[in-house]
Amino acid sequence: MKKRKTIVEIICIILILLLVFFLVSGQEGCQLPGQGPKAEKTGIDYQLISGIDYLSAGKLLEQGESFYVGIKIENYDETPRTGQICIRDNIADTFGGISSEGFGECKFFSIRAADVIKKEVSTIWGKQIKEEVTPGATEIYFPEAAEYSYYSLPSLVKPYSGLLFVSLQYRETTQATGTVTVPGPEQPALSQEPAPIAISVVKSIHKRQDGYKVDFEILLKKQQKAKIFSHDFIQENVTYFRAEMVPQTLACTVSGQPITGLVEFENERLIKCSSLIYTTTQQSYPLVITLDYGVALEKSYPFGIETEGE
After folding, report:
1. CA-to-CA distance for 221 and 291, rounded, in angstroms?
2. Which of 97, 54, 88, 57 is nearest to 304 (CA)?
3. Weakly modelled stretches of the chain, pLDDT under 70
4. Rounded Cα distance, 116 and 39, in Å
5. Closest listed residue to residue 225, CA positions, set 12, 38, 42, 71
């Protein structure tokens, strides 16, 4: 009886240890079998450059003190990017500092693609491929000449509260591609490089007398905190959309209205497309979905200006 009790205790201890192991593995982002580790970041990101004479979040300036603004841009995608980055503050231009009119002060940038190295690593699930991403990087400095400073602000007991706004803008053209089999239950497996808007597709097929009617539900979903514009940045919350299944013709609608090029988009949008295919045998067709839009990444950084005693 005692021996049986000991065996039960050992089994309980093993089960507890296994439970702890899986909980810890889950917290560390353990991958399921067949899933390789993914890169932690995608797209473009940026941060302020810190230094004695550079404006950064939480910095306290004195009136008349000279300062600069430096921004480090990083590209985690395998596509080079070009665009512009703008800075402005929330303080009237009468008191100096950074221009607060319109987008403020802007500079164009060009940044190379990220370097992605794939390595084979051993895990509890066997051999897996791990991606090591070294982002492309560039640095932008403001102003073009001289330096910034604030002056003539009224004397306040507490430091004057300021905000630095940084806006990075670039054009994104992305394609999602897959293969559509008609007839057949297989769903299209789309391939798409990381982008601010992800594309997914669900297919359904209905028999017709001389062929098949193929319906698609195409879901566009925002993947990061960014503002979406037309590619020329004139209209906000729109993207150019085109779906093709050569040589067939696709008719697409959003909210029951035909799509003529631009689609309104904020965080998510469902688009429906359909095509009549006349065939008596199984055929495969390439599906290509193209989006073209502008992306704006905006951040703000608080700082203070000491005015007491001026």
Report:
1. 12
2. 57
3. 1-41, 120-127, 309-310
4. 9
5. 42
